[in-house]
Amino acid sequence: MSRKWTPTCQNKTAYAFLAPSLLGLLVFVLLPFADVIRRSFFQAVGGLFVGMDNYRQVLENGAFRQALGNTVRFLCICLPLLLALSFVTAVFLNSITGFARVLRAGFLLPMAIPVASVVVFWKLLFDQNGAVNQMLEMLHLTGQDWMNTGYAFWILVGSYLWKNMGYDIVLWIAALSAIPEEQYEAARVSGAGAFQCFRYITLPQMKGSIFLIGVLSFVNAFRVFREAYLIAGDYPHESIYMLQHLFNNWFTKLDIQKMSAAAVLMAIAVSVILVLVEWWNERQESSE
């Protein structure tokens, strides 16, 4: 006699498959972070309870403020640029048929290049004796050490956009491909032009994708530290001194109490941002 497959059995099976991942999340993420929260209220040496003193020291630290300001500035500039440029490019690639695959592969190529190779490429371009300065000398202009000036920030922005555009383009194309072609055909029969189709068919159906791609791009933005660290080391130009540099320097100095407090503050800030974005997304969906 066959056993009846009830919803309760389905739930038990689902939890059985999820158990290894949930156990790993508990052991390797949640419990260590709980210990980080505990350490943020104690001195690293001696274990003396200091309450909120570690948080006060972090918030009053000049290096923390500078790194936080640079990171926020980087996110506020890069995320809108990345989302806008990748979306426009995806719409263009989705509208052509000839060389679309070749162009998509070209945009994805930077993702396959190792970070170390990317760093070598940027150094060849923007080093004191790099290609950019050599071209300026040919034009009888004076070059400079670009990574030790304010231009370093914009070079890092360009590196991030170049490295991550392909990933976002693929996500946008997948979202655009999910829109039924019949909707566009019906609109064209009714006399709608390309702009009207884009405004009244494409954009309204991209709202859910904007949330997903925006969150993924936000997470990927924190990985730009690798390029900045490999190009300029522990202490780069002040314009590209990010929170990741600060955490790395505190870790090498074993300043555990500051690092723990800053990690908790950062986790709270990121959680609040994601909750607000999720609330905005749900509000947009409910208003439709």
TrEMBL record:
Its main location: membrane. Residues 68-277 form the ABC transmembrane type-1 domain. InterPro entries: MetI-like, MetI-like_sf, UgpAE/MalFG_permease. It is found in: Cell membrane. Keywords: Cell membrane, Membrane, Transmembrane, Transmembrane helix, Transport. The chain crosses the membrane at residues 12-34, 72-93, 105-126, 146-162, 208-225, 259-280. It is a multi-pass membrane protein. This is Sugar ABC transporter permease.
